Amino acid sequence: MAGATFDSEHSFGKRRAFQGEVRGVLALNDRARAQGGHCERGSDSPTAPRPQESQPASKEALMSVAKRLKEYLEQNHVPYSHCTHRMAYTAQEVAATQHVPGQNMAKTVVLKADDQYVMVVLPAPLKLDLEMLRRELPFGRLELASEKDLAWLFMDSELGAMPPLGNLYNPPVFVDQSLAVREEIVFNAGTHVDTIQMRYDDFERLVHPKVIHAAFATTCG
């Protein structure tokens, strides 16, 4: 019944990531892949959420978080947990490796909207409906950003692993209402082996996303 749909992971899912500034990250995270992952709380707040099966991360693993993201969260005193995990490309795979609900795993879709780019963030199990999105957003033309676009927009992240903090990269951010009701969210932290977990309220305070309704659940037989 839904119209045309967007699923970013269909476009740039299962393939090695583009790498510029963080080319050395994959080597640094060999240990994380072999050991099954580590977690460490960030910022100076004792209330930072800790994902399941957490354990202290090595200094080396902490380096794998996109530098701008980590600095931004620390400067704003945002409680967060940084985790490393086995290599995973799709948001659903990341949720499984991190033992977090798929509805808490934020998937970022980047779109070309007329003459600008926008980020749409939704839970991992859902997909975007293009017709619904057109009704929600004030743009005449919407299409998935190309891999070349992503490489240019997110030079400090691996392809498809950009964090959903558009204010670090300029694109405005739209969040599906199904994610906005979650207490905590988890998202890629610039690589396919790193995630950040933080409270949605903190994410909203930092990013000021516009809440929309443009995602639907697929039924799998």
Describe the structure.
The chain has 221 residues and is of the alpha+beta class. It has a single domain (5-217), classed as YbaK/aminoacyl-tRNA synthetase-associated domain (YbaK protein), CATH 3.90.960.10. The chain has ten helices and twelve strands. The chain is globular. The protein starts with a strand and ends with a strand. Mean pLDDT is 76; it is low at 10-35 and 45-64.
Layout: helices, strands, pairs:
Blueprint: E1 5-6, H1 8-12, H2 25-28, H3 30-35, E2 38-42, H4 59-62, H5 67-75, E3 80-84, H6 91-98, E4 106-113, E5 116-123, E6 126-129, H7 130-136, E7 142-144, H8 147-153, E8 173-176, H9 177-180, E9 184-188, E10 194-199, H10 200-207, E11 210-212, E12 215-217
How is the CATH topology named? YbaK protein
Largest sheet: 5 strands, mixed
Broad shape: globular
Just name the CATH architecture.
Answer: Alpha-Beta Complex
Provide key terms for this protein.
alpha+beta; YbaK protein; 5-stranded mixed sheet
Concise summary:
This protein has 221 residues and is of the alpha+beta class. It has ten helices and twelve strands. The protein has a single domain, classed as YbaK protein (Alpha-Beta Complex).
